[in-house]
Amino acid sequence: MEKVFHLGLTKADLKGASLAIVPGDPERSKRISEYLDSPVCLAQTREFHIYLGFLNESPVVICSTGIGGPSTSIAVEELAQLGITTFLRIGTTGAIQPHINEGDILVSTASVRLDGASQHFAPIEFPAVSDFGATSAMVQACESLGITHHVGITASSDTFYPGQERYDTYSGYVRKAYQGSCAEWQKLNVMNYEMESATLFTMCAALGLKAACLAGVLVNRTRQEIPNVDHHDVEKKAVTAVLKAADILLHQHK
Length: 254
Ligand SMILES: O=P(O)(O)O[C@H]1O[C@H](CO)[C@@H](O)[C@H]1O
Ligand SMILES: O=c1cc[nH]c(=O)[nH]1
What we know:
Elements: E1 19-23, H1 26-33, E2 37-45, E3 48-55, E4 58-63, H2 69-81, E5 86-95, E6 105-114, E7 128-129, H3 132-145, E8 149-157, H4 181-187, E9 192-194, H5 197-207, E10 210-220, H6 231-251
Parallel strand pairs: 1-4, 1-5, 5-10, 6-8, 8-9
Antiparallel strand pairs: 2-3, 3-4, 5-9, 6-7, 6-10
Helix pairs in contact: 2-5, 3-6
């Protein structure tokens, strides 16, 4: 088999792996790989930092997606060509419901499609819905680890500023269409904002792949805009949860 376009890997490089953990941040890939047995770096190209390791003897791929839908769609398309069928996103997020605390883990059942890339896979009426089994594994993982978590809908936006209704200190400008949008999502019981799950869920549902997403809360925007938690502490909790979910999915039938 030829190498895929961006990741530059062949199927043989993945050693038969069928599950990938997909963080946004490239540096998170390496940190996650350190929890696996015999981790190796397969490639570092653009935003895609790819590692292979073993979880209780099963091969697992870690591949960062970078920020947003377009690069996420490339990672997913190319990993699927290499044999990956299950994608577990581990992200960071901003909560918009007052009962959610910094450091909590949010498991997304579905996402509001505030992205553009998902429309290249399915029309806007098509739901950005997670895979039930993979999402249940994330919930089970949080429960068994005693991690405070919330399960529900996520708003997934192409932009960090206007799409998430952030009034930056440079222009303070958010176009009319997004003014008041955060309050509307709050009213509709949306838990949080992040930037990749709408593309991931839509394309995986459309292409017959499985996807789930959990994210660690860095900030609760009902109280403040700038995080004051330790990113690494939040990340560690999310990594522990996603690895447990991967283990459940890979080994539950053995
Ligand atoms: O921490 P990651 O996985 O990158 O996720 C979140 O953080 C980035 C924005 O700061 C976006 O990618 C968003 O989805
Ligand atoms: O508020 C936030 C925090 C992290 N990532 C996002 O996309 N939004």
